[in-house]
Structures are given as structure tokens and as C-alpha cells.
């Protein structure tokens, strides 16, 4: 995996611009990604191979090779085991209508065009001069995005409706996961039984309230570990509503497959490795 940030920035902060490109390959060691969102960045993923289920804004979607996945800013999502892909981060609140299914399939010819444009931009951003980064930005914003918009303009809308009780529970969790809440607090806030809420979660989003809460906490913990290298594990745990650092470390390893310390070391190392396509 390698992530490169575009160093060129427009004078007007409201202008649509390229933020980063990530390259995930089959040989890369990738860890499970918890529930998270991007405040100002919309992500566009070009799926190069494999199949998986991605959770995006209350729904699970089957994702396959040659799919393009669009996740608007401020949409909660979890990619599980991330597939080999090119992920483009763009400074824009949204690229698609929120009611549109965010997974689009393309034939190999069209997908190859989008992949080549993205790979060219990625290679340009390996250079240190600002002109190369500006050119990469222009390739993505002026060439790739209009091409994608043309292809996805008429697409199927989401038909599934999440029950109000599940939406309310998700909202409560997302607003309070940084506090020391548990499933009993969620049920008390909604005036429902644990059994009933478990049943509704399983029926509609394929998990339980406690697993949803833990995924939200672990997703935020992953972000904090990478963005705050000076923070201790205890500080990270406290910021995601877990007061016991040992409990946090056990659950982080269960969720991710590695300890918080290993996650930080290994991901940091990969960020600075030079990898080829």
C-alpha cells in the first residue's frame, strides 16, 4: 500500500481538487478497516480484482473487479478487507446523489481507461515538483471526473429503507461513541430491549449494536493512531470511549488482527515505502 498526498492546492479552498491517491495491491498486508467517515473528502475506488462486501451508509454492497465505488464525504463506511484497488480522495462534499447505489460496474475497456488515468496521476505525484502535482490534479479533476460523471449519471437508486429504530440507534452511537457508553445505554435511550434491538440490527445491517459500536470505535482509533503519532495508546483509547487500555488493546487486536502498536508501526512503514505498480 502506498498513499501519496497531492501537494498542489487551489487558491480558493472551495474549489474541487485532488487530495490523495492510495494504491492497494494483492501482495500488500492490509488490515480490517473499522467504521469511519471523511469530513471533507469524497473517495472514489477503482476495484482491480477480487470480491467483497462493503458497508456504506447503512447498506451492504457486493463489490467485484472492475467496479467503481463512490463514498461521499461524511458517509460512514467500512471496507472490511480492502480489495486491490486505487482509491482517489477528492475535496468535494459529494459526487453522486445520496439516493444512488454507490457501486458502478464497467467493462474491462472502460475500466482500463480510468485505471490508466489514475496510475498516471499517481506516478506524477511521486515527483517532488509542484508542477507535477498540479498536472496530476488536472488529470483527475478535468479528465477522470467528467468521464465518470458521464458514465454514472443515470443509475439505479437505493430501494432499501432502514427502520427508524435502527437509524436512531446508529445516530446515538455515532454521536456518543467517544463517551463510555455500552449497549444498555443505547437500549435505554431508545426505550427498547436488548433482544429486540439485536434482532433489528441483524435483520437490517447484518451485525449487532455492540459490534457496530466497536467497529465505530476501532475505525476512529485507527485514524487517531496514524494522525497522532505522539499519542499514547491510553490517550487513543480514552478518545474512543474506552477507559481501560488493556481492554482497548484486546479488542483492537481482535478487530484488526494486530495490536495498536503493530498497526501504527507497520502502516507508517508502508506509507513511506516506494512501491511499483
UniProtKB/TrEMBL annotation:
Transmembrane segments: none annotated. It holds the Pfam family HTH_18. SMART domains: HTH_ARAC (SM00342). Gene3D superfamilies: Homeodomain-like, Jelly Rolls. Residues 167-266 form the HTH araC/xylS-type domain. GO terms for molecular function: DNA-binding transcription factor activity; sequence-specific DNA binding. Keywords: DNA-binding, Transcription, Transcription regulation. PROSITE patterns: HTH_ARAC_FAMILY_1, HTH_ARAC_FAMILY_2. This is AraC family transcriptional regulator.
